[in-house]
Amino acid sequence: MRSFGDQDSIFVDMDRLNPNTQTYQPKSLPEREAELDQLHSALRPATMGSTPLNAFVFGPTGQGKTVGISLKTSQLQAYADEKGLDLHVVHVRCKGMDKSYHVMTHLIKKLREKRFGPGEELPAGYQKKTLLSMIIDELEAIGGTVIVILDEIDAIGNDDYILYELPRAEPEDVRLSIIGITNDLQFRENLDADVRSSLGEDEIEFAPYDANQLRDILARRAAGALRDTEIGDDDRPFTTLASDVLTDDVIPLTSALAAQDSGDAREAIKLLFRACRFADDDGESPITEHHVRNAHEYLEQAAVERGIQSLPLQRALALLTVTHATLTGTKQPETKDLHALYETFCEHIDARAISGRRFRDKLNDLADSSILAKDTRGRGQGLGQTNRYELEVTVETVLDNLIDDGRIEEVVNEVLRPRMH
């Protein structure tokens, strides 16, 4: 067993490469100056005794939306405190809240904590109209300018009651501004026109980072996190980065892999952090392309395993049909054959079978998640096309990660595992 402190480290501050924003948050976002200027314009009326504009901030995960809004509202709060302005910022994380009701109860809790400090209880047992009245009462008790941030508001799905009612609320002696943040671009498009017009007085898009922007972000993180690593010019972080513990190809490869996957800065930072940890744990320096590729493979495998573990029943059964075909040596079976096997599995565990069309949708969902590979080919002249599927992961990966549901475990252990021996 290894002892702590028994080896030198390439790290001087691991937190700077930790993608968790609760661990480290940058003090600036140079790649988002244009978006932050738009947000500045929406918030600026608060400095002039007027009501800040409502804003709808949208873009994929890992594009700096939450951090950017936190930077600007913190800057505004500091200005208000210095000038003696009555301003309050309330941030509600809506992830996991699938109804307006839950967002409203958490907003009431946050507003009360502004007045009384941490530890307020969530209200329970009230109708939505009553909750809205309670929110207005709390806003009036606070007074002044109140900026409510609803982060990942797309969690509420089609239940947009709070997004319709809150912007139309008129609490007395309160200048209310609402900032909605979403990772789901379709959610924004699906909003009722009245909701979108009132909430989106300003709409600010955080488009995916490109590879060059990711290189600069990673260079700044590396310079703060790794020993013998520094930037010569803050305006050109990557091109002026000098390091004794990073080979020249590490950051370009990391940023290229992240850009082609999603342009997600958080994922890029996670990849570089994992590559550095692999090297550091093995006492190796410098960090090389080899460490990056190993880290990429490791993270992809971990993501696939999490995806399989969280599959709902019908999608899991669809996956097991392709797994069965692999075990029996059936090469790229047609969808109708897989559906027939699926119906057998449903009968085995007394589950309700879905139609062939919906079953095909489940297979396509698995292909979109890179768990299956889909091959569309023609049946012959005038006979149309058919989809064929095969595993993109190993049989062992599927079976080892599909055991949380007792019914699925029954199929795995009684039908599939015996075929592995």
Fold and architecture overview:
With 421 residues, the chain is of the alpha/beta class. It has 16 helices and 9 strands. Helix 9 crosses helix 10 (265-281). The relative contact order is 0.10.
Quick structural summary:
The chain is of the alpha/beta class. It is 49% helix and 12% strand. The strands form three sheets. Strands 2-3-4-1-5 form a five-stranded parallel sheet, sandwiched between helices. The chain has a two-stranded antiparallel sheet with strand order 6-7. A two-stranded antiparallel sheet has the order 8-9.
Q: Describe the global form.
A: globular
Beta-strand portion reads 5-15%
Helices and strands, in order, run as HEHEHHEHEHHEHEEHHHHHHEEHH
Structural class: alpha/beta
Question: Could you report the average pLDDT, rounded to the nearest whole number?
Answer: 91
Order of strands across the biggest sheet? 2-3-4-1-5
Question: What is the helix content?
Answer: 40-55%
Low-confidence stretches: none
Number of strands: 9
Tally of alpha and pi helices: 16
Q: Gap between N and C termini, in Å?
A: 36 Å
For the sheet with most strands, the description reads: 5 strands, parallel
Oligomer: single chain
The Cα radius of gyration reads: 26 Å
